[in-house]
Specification:
Blueprint: H1 3-6, E1 13-18, H2 24-36, E2 41-46, H3 52-56, E3 67-71, E4 77-82, H4 85-97, H5 100-107, H6 111-118, H7 121-136, E5 160-164, H8 168-184, H9 188-201, E6 206-212, H10 216-231, E7 236-244, H11 251-258, H12 264-273, H13 279-307, E8 314-318, H14 326-338
Parallel strand pairs: 1-5, 1-6, 2-4, 2-5, 6-7, 7-8
Antiparallel strand pairs: 3-4
Helix pairs in contact: 2-14, 4-5, 4-7, 7-8, 7-9, 8-9, 8-10, 10-13, 11-13, 12-13
Length: 342
């Protein structure tokens, strides 16, 4: 299936969500590397104040500034930004009201905390606004303001933006928060800001990718998330099945083992041919592990088939042994490219 067939060939904002524990941040980082291949420039952002990007790239905690964290295959660059709601508020006040100094004074009194307590969606408005500003930003622009001598056809600063987003349990509310804000503030800068954010999020520029593992709860949350995102008219991209275990049996042997049937004599002959001593005893000891593996594979296959109900392109990423390092990220990025995910 080609990028055009998937329906998000024009996407420049790739939102990555998933249930906690599915490797959402790791996959977001790998996707950024894959998108940056062949000389492209990609911004990887996070909004949960966990410094997850710094951890996966094994670098110092990220400031509220766009910093290069990796060079992709063929020379592309991956920049990263940890978005802070308070700093985003200062950007917002300067952009629309020219009040950065006043805003800085207000933050000392905890205005952001107060505002987000009174109106919980305020924080999400600031975070999504900063992300979409990076998507729209063109060369020659600063903080969302276009110089008089700049043209609307100037190249974008970033070829793509990847957002390591909140979990699937609240992703629809997070992405759709500006619709509610636009309805409450029917005119003025706040309404204009909310409209501009949703113009990006609801357009072909955006694709929301859901990360899952082949376990009951993550799969169900993935399917629920896809449905909820679709219900608020935000484009869904793909389903990314992470930590897929390797299969060691062919289809015939897998089917037999899943039904509890193992040819122990054939297994012993294979072990003996491989040069193992006490092949018969070893074969007997391996039978329980082989049966457990076959049952796991069968269960995962059933869950994989359930994901097809979402009718979205689905890609498989392998289970990597040990902690994920930069080499592992490059490997996952290559798997995404090989499967045609980008």
């Amino acid at each position: 299936m080609s990028v055009r067939d998937r329906g998000w060939n024009d996407a420049r904002l790739h939102v990555v969500t998933g249930k906690g524990g599915t490797g959402k941040t790791t996959i977001a980082a790998a996707l950024a590397l894959a998108l940056a291949a062949s000389g492209r420039t990609v911004l990887l952002t996070e909004v949960e104040e966990r410094q997850g990007i710094a951890q996966v790239f094994d670098c110092a905690p990220l400031p509220y500034a766009e910093r290069r964290v990796a060079v992709a295959p063929d020379g592309g660059d991956v920049y990263a930004l940890a978005i802070d709601a308070e700093a985003a508020l200062l950007d917002y006040l300067e952009m629309f009201y020219g009040l950065r100094r006043a805003g800085a004074a207000l933050t000392r009194f905890g205005v952001v905390d107060f505002a987000t307590t009174v109106a919980p969606g305020t924080r999400d408005v600031l975070l999504t606004g900063k992300v979409t500003e990076a998507v729209r930003r063109r060369q020659g622009e600063e903080r969302g303001r276009t110089p008089r001598d700049a043209t609307r056809r100037a190249p974008f600063v970033y070829d793509a933006v990847v957002l390591d987003a909140p979990p699937t349990g609240r992703i629809a509310q997070f992405l759709n928060v500006n619709t509610e804000v636009a309805g409450l503030a029917r005119m003025g800068p706040v309404h204009h800001h909310a409209d501009r954010v949703m113009e990006v999020i609801r357009s072909a520029q955006t694709a929301v990718h859901v990360v899952t593992t082949l376990e009951d709860m993550p799969v169900q949350e993935c399917l629920d998330g896809v449905e909820q995102i679709t219900d608020v008219n935000i484009p869904v991209g793909s389903i990314l099945v992470n930590m897929r275990r390797p299969r060691f049996l062919n289809e015939t042997d897998q089917r037999a083992a899943a039904e509890g049937r193992v040819d122990t004599e054939a297994l012993a002959r294979g072990l003996k041919a491989a040069g193992l001593e006490q092949a018969e005893q070893t074969a007997q000891e391996l039978v329980p592990e082989l049966l457990a593996h076959a049952h796991t594979v069968a269960a995962e296959q059933g869950l994989r088939e359930r994901l097809e109900a979402a009718q979205r392109p689905t890609f498989d990423l392998p289970l990597l042994e040990g902690p994920i390092d930069l080499a592992g990220l490059y490997h996952l990025a290559n798997v995404l490219r090989t499967q045609g995910a980008v």
